[in-house]
Specification:
The complex is a heterodimer.
Chain A: E1 4-13, E2 16-26, E3 31-35, H1 42-50, E4 57-62, E5 65-66, E6 77-80, H2 92-101, H3 107-120, H4 136-148, E7 154-158, H5 166-183, E8 186-191, H6 194-200, E9 203-208, E10 211-216, H7 218-223, H8 228-233, E11 240-249, E12 252-257, E13 260-263, H9 267-275, E14 280-284, E15 289-292, E16 300-309, E17 313-320, E18 323-330, E19 340-345, E20 350-354
Parallel strand pairs in A: 3-8, 3-9, 6-7, 7-8
Antiparallel strand pairs in A: 1-2, 1-4, 4-5, 9-10, 11-12, 11-14, 12-13, 14-20, 15-19, 16-17, 16-19, 17-18
Helix pairs in contact in A: 2-3, 2-4
Chain B: H1 2-38, H2 42-45, H3 59-65, E1 68-70, H4 77-82, H5 85-92, E2 95-97, E3 99-100, E4 103-104, H6 109-140, H7 146-155, H8 165-174, H9 181-206, H10 210-217, H11 222-233, H12 235-251, H13 254-259, H14 267-274, H15 282-302, H16 304-312
Antiparallel strand pairs in B: 1-2, 3-4
Helix pairs in contact in B: 1-15, 3-15, 6-9, 6-12, 6-14, 7-9, 9-12, 10-11, 12-16, 14-15
The chains are: A alpha+beta, B mainly alpha.
Chain lengths: 366, 318
């Protein structure tokens, strides 16, 4: 098992700059997820680490040793492909044994290793079959078995469960987490699915346009997004982001959204002045928009115009003086569209961003 | 509604089967004709109108494999009685088989047949082998001017080969390649190579590159990945390409006629030219042709599963 480090990595595909100034350290035994929309460079980064893609400049280090000029076969890394890439002409047993055959181990050693790994992932009964006879989930298990059998320095996974159906995906997610806990292999996992990322990762690396946006634990990126992109990429339903103005009226600090003015703690003004941002965007997750049927201090009148029931909660679109804010409520809290309600923005869940650059101003209220 | 459509379907099936039978008959009739001629007595073969029912005999095949001369006088009854059945059949036709001591002198046919086998097999292996490697390169690596190079390769097939027969013959003569196996092998390999590259590129393009990448990260070199992963995956395409190349080389007539005359002559120019003194012996020619058809038939039959998948492979884009 090993530490993986990227230093100032650059990569172009023709005129497209796919990886820009990538710096990242993945600690030994850590499970890191590269998360981002398609085309953000996450898969290219993973392939570059594996040696399937060359880089233009920078260093890739495994256990402190630069490997960017080594062949994929010399990096001692395993890769799980999205479409499994099981060799169709070989049985499951031979597929798993394939990486070991390259090392020239004895038959008995190979057999023992294959059976151990097959036992660990529960596919002993499939060993004699060919990949075409397997279900999607089993193919993925075999692919992971083939990756683990050699006990590689690191395990790289490119959307490994992306092509499974939703239910199976949930099961495999749990299984991957269990396997990681058991094996403790340094893992880098690429996905565009934030749920996968949040549930699996020790740390999430969010990428966009080839640029690393934020690295942090799942709760860090959720609770303290570094910029608007991360704020809106993480979390479902999406965070409300709206233009807002901070006002001061008779000693009361407020946040003006469209025509409505929401009360905020007094220290906000000072913090904003310190940051010197000209115009700000407010970000607030639906659970940070608090609703009430009755008028209360600090609550402003709003109108519900769309209700999406999710089961354990409802998502309600509110009309705030022409602007839409989404709120998360108890199931059935808002009975019908058109209902008049009162809303407040929870200062502790409010995020403030520089409207121009999109970066977080780092303001945390209580 | 369902009943009507199923009746329509049954009718459509019937029409399809009848059409298939009709087409098959059209294609098989020349083969039936040549095969039946190979077993006809000499006078029956040329009778007009053609005879459909006759007593089949294998004399044409005996003639095909032996050297014979006209009998000046009939053999003595003892000699005739001592002769095996196939020699008697030759005596009956007014000829005798040439012998050295007691050994029958073989005709040139087995030798020409062997020449055909050598030239076709070797040129097929070369064309398919080089074609596969070239196609792999084109398919997997970024190559400058790839489209132009591929077009250039294809352009070697854009003129009828006979057009270059004379210059080729002169070149071959100055290189001492006329009437050599090597000469024909080079020629047929060159014929088939462009075809092989294009066909194999189509097949290899269809093999997901993830298979090799998986092998690469699993600790194999690209060469090993090529042999262990790409070749088995491309088996269908290789089989289809090999059949087409083999058929082309096996049936080639014009260059074989021009470039060879004795040592390296293949069967196609030999069969019509060498058999029979005086009038052409149609039955013997037919016998030579029937045997000549067999290797291709066997080769195709052995690879039929690959071939069926092969010719339709890549027809449907995912």
């Amino acid at each position: 098992m090993a530490e993986i480090q990227l230093r100032d990595v650059q990569k172009h595909f023709g005129p497209v700059h796919v990886i820009r100034d990538m710096n990242l350290t993945v600690a030994d035994r850590e499970f890191v997820v590269l998360l981002g929309p398609s085309g953000c460079g996450k898969t290219t980064t993973l392939r570059a680490i594996a040696g399937l893609e060359s880089i233009d400049s920078g260093d890739i280090l495994i256990d402190g040793k630069p490997v960017q000029n080594l062949h994929a076969s010399d990096r001692d890394i395993a890769f799980v492909f999205q479409l499994y890439a099981l060799y169709p002409h070989l049985t499951v047993y031979e597929n798993i044994a394939f990486p070991l055959r390259a090392t020239g181990q004895s038959k008995a050693e190979v057999d023992k290793a294959v059976r151990t790994v097959a036992g660990a992932i529960g596919i002993i009964h499939l060993l004699k079959l060919r990949p075409s006879a397997l279900s999607g989930g089993d193919m993925q298990r075999v692919a992971i078995g083939r990756a683990l059998v050699r006990r590689p320095k690191a395990l790289l996974m490119d959307e490994p469960i992306g092509s499974l159906d939703a239910k199976l995906r949930e099961g495999m997610r749990v299984e991957l987490k269990r396997l990681h806990l058991e094996n403790g292999s340094t893992s880098i996992y690429v996905t565009h699915d934030q749920v996968e990322a949040m549930s699996l990762a020790d740390r999430i690396v969010i990428m966009h346009d080839g640029i690393l946006q934020q690295v942090g634990t799942p709760s860090e990126v959720y609770l303290r997004p570094a910029n608007l992109f991360v704020a809106q990429f993480i979390g479902s339903p999406v965070m409300n982001v709206t233009e807002a103005k901070v006002t001061e009226n008779a000693g009361e600090t407020g946040l003006q959204i469209a025509s409505e003015n929401f009360a905020m703690p007094r220290e906000l003004l000072g913090m904003l002045q310190q940051q010197g941002a000209e115009s700000i965007s407010l970000g607030v997750r639906p659970e940070g928009v608090l609703l009430s049927h009755d008028q209360q201090p600090g609550y402003r009148p709003v109108e519900a115009h769309l209700i999406q029931p999710f089961g354990p909660f409802d998502i309600v679109d509110l009309n705030v003086g022409g602007q839409t804010l989404r709120a998360r409520t108890h199931t059935g809290f808002v009975r019908q569209p058109g209902e008049k309600l009162w809303a407040r923005i929870d200062p502790a869940q409010a995020h403030f961003f520089d409207q121009k650059s999109g970066t977080s101003l780092g303001i945390r209220l209580t | 509604m369902a009943a009507v459509s199923s009746r329509n379907q049954r009718f459509g099936r019937l029409v399809a089967i009848l059409a298939i039978i009709a087409v098959t008959l059209v294609f098989l009739s020349p083969i039936y004709w040549i095969a039946s001629t190979a077993f006809k007595p000499r006078n029956v073969a040329t009778s007009v109108p053609p005879t459909v029912l006759f007593q089949p005999e294998v004399t044409p095949f005996v003639k095909l494999f032996t050297k014979r001369v006209q009998l000046k006088q009939p053999p003595t009854p003892e000699v005739y009685a001592a002769a095996p059945w196939w020699e008697k059949a030759i005596y009956d036709g007014g000829e005798r088989i040439l012998k050295v001591g007691n050994d029958v002198q073989l005709s040139q046919y087995p030798n020409r047949f062997l020449n055909s086998l050598i030239v076709s097999v070797v040129s097929t292996i070369l064309a398919v082998g080089m074609g596969t490697i070239t196609a792999y390169g084109f398919s997997r690596f970024r190559i400058k001017g790839e489209a132009d190079l591929l077009f250039f390769i294809l352009s070697t097939r854009m003129l009828p080969p006979v057009v270059v027969a004379i210059p080729m013959f002169l070149m071959y003569r100055s290189f001492d390649l006329t009437d050599t196996h090597l000469g024909l092998i080079i020629l047929y390999t060159a014929f088939n190579l462009s075809f092989s590259v294009w066909l194999m590129k189509g097949f290899i393009d269809e093999i997901p590159k993830e298979y090799e990448e998986a092998a690469l990260v699993d600790g194999y070199t690209r060469m090993q990945a090529f042999f262990k992963i790409v070749l088995p995956e491309a088996a269908t395409g290789i089989a289809a390409t090999a059949v087409f190349c083999f058929i082309t080389a096996w049936n080639e007539y014009a260059f074989a006629l021009i470039m060879t005359n004795r040592r390296a002559q293949t069967a196609p120019p030999f069969i019509p030219s060498q058999i029979g003194s005086g009038l052409p012996e149609w039955t013997v020619i037919a016998a030579g042709t029937v045997l000549f058809l067999l290797p291709v038939a066997i080769f195709t039959f052995l690879l039929r599963n690959h071939l069926l998948r092969g010719v339709t492979f890549g027809a449907i884009r995912k």
